[in-house]
Amino acid sequence: MNQLLRDILDNAGANPYFFDFLQKVCNLGDLKRNVSLSLKALPGESIIDVGCGTGLYSTLAKGKYVGIDLNEAYIIYAQTKYKDKNKKFIVGDVTKINFGDELFDKTLYLAMLHHFNEEDNIRILTKISAITRGKILILDLTMPERANSIQSFFLRVERGRYVRSLNQQLKIIGKVLKIQDATTIFNRSKFGLFSIIDAQPRDAKS
User: Fold this and answer.
1) How much is the CA Rg of the chain, to the nearest whole Å?
2) Which pTM was predicted?
């Protein structure tokens, strides 16, 4: 039954309209507010959003914004919904895109860790480190110490296959980035625990 529901959600989740609706139903607006407080975006700053989905977090940017996602339907949806000369949405794998000498002031890597194994995350985080001057903000679904029945059900049908504890997340991230701060929060519906991790490249860039 869980696998059937997971397959249904996988197929439905690929639809950008359903994906946006699901985010509203799950109260992910709470997470957006917390990301905004942690990101502290300033006018003129450039931001790259790796795994941008349908562009929900693009509205946090006050300067140049580049969103990247593998799902072409998500990108087309974002391009249609967020028409702004400072916003650019790209279909692709960030590790295979040549940015040349371009650097971004801040990077978002939101709700992506649990979709990749450790090796792939390290590869992605290494690329992120190479193209980021400052803050790298990571948010992800986190395994609670004691999950209630609703949380346990959500974790069983979650599309991502690699939901980890905060310590497990930090272990992976710490192999590539310098971790500045980490905390966990529940969203308003209490269906899931999420980590917010503030990191930066180990090497300073001008």
Assistant:
1) 16
2) 0.89
